[in-house]
Amino acid sequence: MRDDCDVLIVGAGPSGAVAAQEFARAGMRVTCLEQGDWPDYEKARAGHADFELTSRKYWNWDPNQRRAAGDYPIDDTESDITALMYNGVGGGTVLYAAHWERFLPSDFRTRTMDGVGDDWPIGYWDLEPYYDEVERQFAVSGLEGDPALPPTTPPPLPPVPLNKLGRRGAEALNKLGWHWWPGSNAIATADYGPLHACAQRTACPFGCPTGAKASADRTHWRALAKDQVRLTVRATVEQVLLDDRGRATGVTYLDADGVRHEIRAGVVVLCANAIGTTRILLASADGTGVANSSGLVGRRLMMHPFGNAIGIFDEDLESWRGPLGQYLHSLEFYESDRSRGFVRGAKWNLLPSGAPLSFMLPGTWGDEPVWGANFTRLLRERHGHSAIWGVICEDLPDPANRVLLDEQAAADGVPGVRIQYRTSDNSRAMMAWHLERLSEVLDAMGAKKKIFNPNLRGTGWHLMGTAVMGEDPDASVVDPHGRCHDVPNLYVFDGSVFPTSSGVNPTATIAANALRCARSLVAHRRDVEVPA
What we know:
Shape: globular
C-alpha cells in the first residue's frame, strides 16, 4: 500500500510536533508516523487510592518494564544508565517532569572555552528567537530576570509557587550567597489554550490528570491531527527507502496488524529520539544503514548522569505537594572551574518528594532497605518531611558510548537495540563535588538526616548525540540545519543532532532547534533535491 506527501515525519514527540505545525502552516502536505498510540489519560489516577501502583505500570519510564504497544526491546546490560523514553503521541513529554531550561551560551562553545567536546555550528543567539516561540507553544511558566542567563522575553505564565519546601531551599541558598531562581516549567499555572491550571499533585510524569503539563499531544497534536496533518499511530517504521541516486523516497512501516505499508514523500524527517532515529538509520538499506559515511550514526550517545541529595527534616514542609517540575533551580557552579578537578558543570533543582509509596520504591532513595520493620518508621519520617535536590551533570560526547542494532531482539522483523555506555571519570568527579556542595545546602536548610545517591541508574531520560550536526561531512551526520550529508532530502530534528549535552534539561533546546530547522527547510524547500 502506498501514500504520498510532501514531508513525512517519523515520531510524534516534541520535535515532530513543532516541525509538523511549521510545515502545515506553510501549506505542505504532512504525514506523521508514530510507533506508539495516544496516551490514555483515564489511567492517570492521581487522587485515587491506586494512583502510585497504576502509575508504575502505565506510566513507567522504562520501556523494558512498561512494554506498551509502541515499545521495543533495549538491551542495556552494557550501560551504566538505563535509557528511558515514551513511544506514543507526545513522545517523552508525556512522561517528562517538564523542567524547561534553555542551554547557556557556554554550552555551545565547550571546545573553545574548555578544550572538550565540540563547538556547535550554531550559538545561543541563533536559537534565542526560537526559544521565545516554543516557550509560548509549551505554556512555560517562570520568571524573567534570572541572573545566570542572558536577558530573555518573559515567559507566558508566572512560576509555580514555591510553597514551604521551596521557600526553605531558597532561604538556605540566600544564606550561603549562592544563586537560585524560581524554576521554569512547561506547566500551566493558569488556564492556557488547551491546558488547565496546575493542581500541584506531584503527578507530572504519570499522566497529569489535571491537564496542566504541556505535553506535545495536548499542546500540538490534538489540533494538528484534526485537519492539518495526517497522523498514523501504531506505525513501526522499518527503514528509509532510497532511489538509485541516493535520495530518500519514503519509508516502509508495519501497522498494528503487521501489514507492511510504503509511504512516498518528497522529504523525510526523523524525530524518533536519539535511540529510535539511530535504529531506523542503521536498519535502512536492508540493514547496511544510510547517512553513515562518517561512521558516527549511533555514536556519542549522551544521557546526563543524574544523582540526588535528600534531606529529612523535623518540620512538615508539605513536600508531597507541588510540581515534579522544579520549585527552583541553581546554576551557581555551572560554569567550568578546573580547580575542582573536572570541567563543565551541573544544574541543581529542588523537587517535592511525592506521595507515600514513592518513599518505599528503589531508585530515588538509594539502597536503604525499607520493607519490614522499618516501613512505618521511615514512612512517618519521610512523608512531608523530606526534600530532594537533583543534580544533572553535563555528559561529554564519547564515540565509544553508542547505540547498536540488536537483531536477536527483533520483533516482526524489526530489530531492537543495545546500548554501550560508561559514565566518564569527569562526570563522576563532577557528581561527587556537587553532592558535597549540596550537603552544605541541606545543613543550611536544617536537615537532621542526609542521604546521597550519586549516579543513579534508572535516569536516562535525556537521549542525545547519536546523529551529530556539523559542517564537516567526515565528522558529523547532519549539517547545521538537520539535513543528512549523505542523503539530501533526509533530515534529523531531534536530540540526536546535539554535539554536546549541556548540564540542563534538553527539551527546550530540542523544540527550539526543531523549529529553527523546520523553518529553514520551508524557506529553502525549492532547493531540496527530491526523488523524481
